[in-house]
Amino acid sequence: MKPKVTMIAWNQNDNYVVTAVNNHLLKVWNSSTGQLLHDLVGHADEVFVLETHPFDCRIMLSAGHDGNVFIWDITKGTKTKHYFNMIEGQGHGAVFDCKFSPDGQHFACTDSHGHLLIFGFGCSRPYEKIPDQMFFHTDYRPLIRDSNNYVLDEQTQQAPHLMPPPFLVDVDGNPHPTNYQRLVPGRENCADEHLIPQLGYVATSDGEVVEQVIGQQTVDQDEPGLEPSILDGMIRQLQLEQDQRTGADQESAPSGPQNGEGTPRRG
């Protein structure tokens, strides 16, 4: 097999260069002389993640498609910590990306099964307030293009950026309780009735019909005692301002040549 470099990274002070090779070895080089200093052995598949510590020049993190995450001391060429991403009933999950926190006390990884793995010092209590499975109900909604080639949500016929903030659901499309819905930007101060999604029956690719979130429950704006949606009001206000600007531009633009000669100026 012809060796190929799959990833390269400098350490924090640029004294060392670490390369990942497709024979599953990591090589540590002196960046000034090009001398090979260490071979780091541990990975069993290709490595596409090399992340240097934000301030400790000795530390380098590596992760690969074998599900292994290593913390290395590249000055000594030794392994400091190791984690294997085993998923119960599904084998290992390939690690696709890793990043250190700015203080160097934590790092986070994402894997091929959609998991976010957070490592660090302290307890996990701050993370226990969120559910294990978090998706937006619009994540896999189909899109279409209109006659002007603009993208629209197929179900609502709206531009995606004009739709209300999405709801948090689990992997099966079941909505989470209202206290979780307030974690979504734009829903922090919503009333309880605006945090209850509209459910409907959707056919899956297997032909099975399941109940899923299909949109936000809307209230009749003319019904007494109910306040209009703040988001809808903002959208209407922005559209009104845009229409007013467009009208003003059209009034100030020249209507055409006064003497019938020449061509009108393009707007």
From TrEMBL:
InterPro entries: Bromo_WD_repeat, WD40/YVTN_repeat-like_dom_sf, WD40_repeat_CS, WD40_repeat_dom_sf, WD40_rpt. SUPFAM superfamilies: WD40 repeat-like. GO terms for cellular component: nucleus. Residues 249-261 have a biased composition (Polar residues). Gene3D superfamilies: YVTN repeat-like/Quinoprotein amine dehydrogenase (2.130.10.10). Residues 239-267 are annotated as: Disordered. The keyword Repeat applies. The keyword Protein transport does not apply. Keywords: Repeat, WD repeat. Pfam families: WD40. One of its GO terms (biological process) is regulation of cell shape. WD repeats lie at residues 1-39, 40-82. This is BRWD1 protein. It comes from Cinclus mexicanus (American dipper). The gene is Brwd1_0.
